[in-house]
Specification:
Largest interface: A-B, 22 and 29 residues
Helix content of chain B: 55-70%
Shape of chain B: elongated
Radius of gyration of chain B: 36 Å
Structural class of chain A: alpha/beta
Number of strands of chain A: 5
Strand content of chain A: 15-25%
Helix content of chain A: 40-55%
Oligomer: heterodimer
Radius of gyration of chain A: 14 Å
Shape of chain A: globular
Largest sheet of chain B: 6 strands, mixed
Strand content of chain B: 5-15%
Distance between the termini of chain B: 22 Å
Number of helices of chain B: 11
Order of helices and strands of chain A: EHEHEHEHEHH
Order of helices and strands of chain B: EHHHHHHHHEHEEHEEHEE
Structural class of chain B: alpha+beta
Chain lengths: 144, 424
């Protein structure tokens, strides 16, 4: 059982600030400045965790990362974030296999709802075997 | 995904090679659409040209009019000669003269008195020096009079005709010039308008991205701080917490304003239509190469008509082409060899447009951020041309990239999805 969130964003202030907010919400946050660094840090699928990634990053972007994870049959829930959002991009994110999509700048409620959605969707993806995500869901619901 | 691949130009299609001079004329002809020729007034006037020379726009009235001028000079010389003959009593003299005088008055009235008088006076000298030494005294009297009248009539007609042709040609040229200029003005205005909108869109998009990061961070920190304060008791803490939440809301609101501005701009770019890429390249060339006359530019086109159909925003694609063509011309400013190749080729479901120059190539320092806003090597450039181009191409579902040529210069390529053709 874990309440870990892997947070990937090349923009340091954006990543650190979100990590700060998530920490105050009660999550444990692991930060990575690139998708490559996230991947090299994982020996196995972090099945119990949640992944939050920025879309636009210099080398591997959030979409490519999501596709790669789905190709590997990793069902870890992915929440993609972008400052360049439009409906096409949101659809593309979902098509790539993301569980939810969040547009910058977001409200605190927005983050909470998005995480909740991801966890719910994660449940669907896992066909009911998403116990760890339920742990996160409970955590999210307990956030005032 | 497009695989960038270099394709030798003209291997399948005979390349249309144009010297710069031809390119400019081609450009002018492109700029004057067939509408001008179909204009009823012009078509009617155009039929007056007896030498079959319906002139292409911009071309100087050369051969037909000079031939007419020679013929006119000859006619008036003959005319004046017989005027002089009319004064010779021994050649039939005065009896023929009143008729001749009448003919002169009529011709002067028709053709204009001034020009007639000048050419007559000039011709009298020719009569004294040429016609009289030829001893026309041996000619029969009636033949002289007949020739006199005939040549008078010919002179009048000739003069009149020349004036008409000249006047009509001038009017036609003026009309063409005006329509040409109006068309170009209209197109320029359209392009400038779109360029402004695109620049605004690019600015808004860049701003949205650049500002969203710090705004998100601000909002996150404020919300996080407010959460921490929830565990703290004390005078004024609740107020401070509320203030932090409100500050966070304002940061989000600032971001929303920028988003709204970007959305507003992008709405104007949504119109797509079936487009012939070859024609669009011609149109963009017409504008891009104006003013490049002195630079000794050689442009080669290799357009594959089988893959020219796309569905796209006409002015937007024109703008991409214009950016790339202008960049290419600018990049070759200092080059000894100024050759530009524009080609299209199908790659899978896409058509790839290639614009290759023999210019200075891409500075390796700027190459990684070439398509990002505000990256420029031009002293007077703002650096949004290529980022706008990328945004346009990507919005159409294509890609844009650059390759460095081994022989010097750079090759810009962009792809657009091909329209599914009904006959395939």
């Amino acid at each position: 059982m874990t309440d870990r969130i892997h947070l990937i964003d090349d923009d340091d202030p954006a990543r650190e600030s979100l990590a700060f907010l998530l920490t105050t919400m009660g999550f444990r946050v692991l930060q990575y400045p690139s998708a490559e660094q996230f991947l090299s840090a994982q020996t196995d699928e972090p099945t119990e965790d949640l992944l939050i990634s920025d879309i636009r990053m210099p080398s591997m972007d959030g979409m490519e990362l999501t596709r790669l994870l789905r190709e590997r049959q990793w069902s870890v829930p992915v929440l993609l974030i972008s400052g360049h959002a439009d409906s096409r991009l949101a659809q593309a994110a979902i098509d790539a296999g993301a569980s939810a999509f969040l547009e910058k700048p977001y409200t605190e409620i927005g983050v909470k709802d998005a995480i909740e959605n991801v966890v719910r969707r994660g449940d669907q993806v896992l066909h009911g075997s998403g116990a760890p995500q339920r742990r996160i869901a409970m955590l999210v619901n307990s956030v005032p | 995904m497009i695989v960038p691949g270099h394709r030798e130009l003209g291997d399948n299609n005979a390349p249309v090679e144009l010297s710069h001079r031809e390119t400019i004329r081609f450009a002018e002809e492109v700029a004057v659409p067939p509408v001008v020729a179909q204009h009823p007034a012009i078509a009617a006037r155009g039929s007056l040209h007896i030498f079959g020379g319906s002139r292409s726009p911009g071309q100087k009235p050369s051969l037909p009019n000079s031939v007419l001028r020679y013929a006119l000079a000859l006619g008036t010389v003959m005319l004046a000669s017989f005027v002089r003959l009319g004064f010779e009593p021994e050649l039939g003299g005065i009896p023929g003269f009143p008729f001749f005088l009448l003919a002169l008055v009529v011709s002067a009235g028709l053709a204009g008195f001034g020009p007639m008088l000048i050419s007559m006076i000039a011709s009298l000298f020719v009569f004294e020096l040429v016609i009289l030494p030829m001893h026309p005294l041996s000619w029969p009297e009636h033949a002289v009079q007949l020739l006199m009248y005939l040549s008078t009539a010919a002179g009048i007609l000739l003069f009149r005709y020349l004036l008409d042709v000249e006047r009509q040609a001038t009017a036609r040229e003026a009309l063409e010039r005006e329509q040409n200029a109006a068309k170009l003005r209209e197109r320029d205005a359209e392009l400038i308008h779109m360029a402004r909108l695109s620049a605004l869109g690019e600015m808004a998009s860049s701003l949205a991205h650049e500002l969203n990061q710090p705004l998100s961070a601000t909002s996150n920190y404020l919300n996080g701080a407010a959460r921490i304060l929830e565990a703290v008791d004390g005078p004024g803490v609740a107020t401070a917490r509320e203030a932090l939440h409100r500050a966070a809301e304002q940061a989000v609101r600032a971001g929303t304003i920028i988003h709204r501005m970007r959305d507003f701009v992008s709405r104007h770019e949504a119109v797509r239509e079936p487009l012939d890429l070859g024609k669009t390249i011609e149109e963009a060339s017409a504008i891009a190469f104006v003013g490049a006359k002195e630079r000794g530019l050689r442009v080669t086109y290799s357009i594959d008509p089988s893959c020219s159909q796309v569905v796209a925003g006409r002015v937007q694609i024109q703008q991409v082409l214009l950016n790339l063509l202008r960049n290419a011309v600018d990049a070759m400013e200092q080059s000894p060899r100024r050759e530009l190749t524009v080609s299209t080729a199908p790659i899978g479901d896409f058509v790839v447009v290639t614009i290759a120059d023999t210019g200075t190539g891409i500075d390796p320092q700027i190459a990684p951020r070439l398509f990002q806003p505000f990256a420029t090597t031009k002293p007077a450039g703002v650096g949004i041309g290529l980022s706008i181009s990328r945004r346009i191409v990507e919005a159409h579902g294509g890609k844009i990239w650059v390759e460095t040529r081994q022989e010097g210069g750079s090759t810009f390529k962009f792809s657009l999805p091909r329209e599914a053709r009904s006959d395939e």
